[in-house]
């Protein structure tokens, strides 16, 4: 018998085994999630290269610095829409924020869910042992459609926008569990946006706003730098939102879907480090590495080294890693877990 004859049946066997396994897996995903798992390899993010830890606990010295965390329930978000926002854009972002709190309906939204993702954030405690709150609500909204401080904002004028909203809305002065969240539309430029940051959080100065209030800013990068701030829906090296290898955003909007992961990142960090004296790694409090920074670019199991981790793709090719309210799907980066001493997310496969 020739070698060919020996190999032939083995090859047939190998192929048929592989294809029947594939068919079984396909059936299962179609029946349960209507989705398949995949772990794409993408060019690395531009901004995170200097802070890339990729979940290695050997070099992570995340420590508690004795300051408060947002432990009172609920965490109240005071939302400022700066610039031009459509009703559907606002709805998408509000649906995400409203998906953070545990749902009253068991097993809906189905696992992996946004509220499961926030569980990692609520593992952080202050020195009294109080955990970060599990519930997050949108307490009040203000639309600054007149661009009260122009179409270019600096780090300081962002605080003036908050001062204006606190007076005009009026927003209460909520020191205890308030987050003042400024979102700027695609046509607004912000100091350091796209070059050094996609969003940031800090606290207001009494001299600017009259109070010390934790706040966060995130911009819609869709028209300005999607390859920087809407990763992985746009990837470096290709302008205009997309490029070979980029993934289809779950809600069909590169800028907004990218923004949601940055909002998630900033809310997680702000809640565990609202006055920048609680949870962070590194020796320098002026450039703290926080619980979101440690896991930037990681969305699932097996991430690192250019891979974003195992995420889901639905029948329309849209990429996501967690479910939210109203049947929404979102793609949100993982968060450092103080218990696992590793990056963690609700779609972990182990
Ligand atoms: C509070 O945090 C501790 C320490 O991480 C954790 O063991 C516990 O499960 C947390 N409780 C809640 C309700 O999240």
UniProtKB/TrEMBL annotation:
<dbReference type="Pfam" id="PF04674">
    <property type="entry name" value="Phi_1"/>
</dbReference>
<keyword id="KW-0052">Apoplast</keyword>
<keyword id="KW-0964">Secreted</keyword>
<dbReference type="InterPro" id="IPR006766">
    <property type="entry name" value="EXORDIUM-like"/>
</dbReference>
<feature type="signal peptide">
    <location>
        <begin position="1"/>
        <end position="22"/>
    </location>
</feature>
<comment type="similarity">
    <text>Belongs to the EXORDIUM family.</text>
</comment>
<dbReference type="GO" id="GO:0048046">
    <property type="term" value="C:apoplast"/>
</dbReference>
<protein>
    <recommendedName>
        <fullName>Protein EXORDIUM-like 5</fullName>
    </recommendedName>
</protein>
<keyword id="KW-0732">Signal</keyword>
């Amino acid at each position: 018998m020739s070698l060919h004859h020996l190999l032939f049946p083995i090859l047939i066997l190998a192929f048929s085994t592989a294809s029947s396994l594939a068919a079984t897996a396909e059936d299962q995903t179609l029946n349960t999630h209507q989705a398949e798992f995949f772990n794409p390899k993408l060019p690395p993010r531009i901004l995170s290269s200097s802070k890339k830890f990729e979940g290695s606990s050997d070099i992570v010295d995340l420590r508690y610095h004795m300051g408060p965390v947002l432990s009172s329930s609920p965490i109240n978000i005071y939302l400022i829409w700066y610039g031009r926002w459509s009703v559907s854009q606002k709805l998408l972002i509000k649906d995400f924020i409203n998906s953070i709190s545990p749902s009253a309906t068991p097993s809906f939204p189905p696992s992996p869910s946004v509220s499961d993702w926030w569980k990692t954030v609520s593992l952080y405690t202050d020195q009294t042992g109080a955990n970060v709150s599990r519930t997050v609500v949108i307490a009040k909204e203000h639309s600054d459609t007149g661009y009260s401080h122009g179409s270019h904002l600096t780090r300081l004028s962002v605080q003036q926008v908050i001062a204006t909203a606190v007076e005009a809305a009026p927003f209460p002065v909520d020191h205890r569990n308030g987050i003042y969240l400024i979102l700027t539309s695609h046509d607004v430029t912000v100091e350091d946006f796209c070059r050094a940051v996609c969003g940031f959080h800090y606290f207001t100065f009494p001299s600017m706003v009259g109070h010390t209030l934790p706040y966060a800013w995130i911009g819609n990068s869709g028209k300005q730098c999607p390859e920087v701030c809407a990763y992985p829906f746009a990837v470096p090296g290709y302008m205009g939102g997309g490029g070979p290898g980029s993934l289809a955003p779950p809600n069909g909007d590169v800028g907004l879907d990218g923004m949601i992961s940055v909002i998630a990142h900033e809310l997680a960090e702000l809640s565990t480090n609202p006055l920048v004296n609680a949870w962070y790694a590194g020796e320098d409090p002026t450039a703290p590495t926080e619980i979101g920074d440690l896991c930037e670019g990681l969305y699932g199991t097996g991430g690192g080294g250019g891979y974003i981790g195992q995420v889901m793709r639905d029948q329309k090719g849209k990429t996501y890693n967690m479910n939210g309210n109203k049947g929404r799907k979102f793609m949100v980066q993982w968060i450092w877990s103080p218990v696992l001493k590793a990056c963690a997310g609700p779609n972990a496969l182990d």
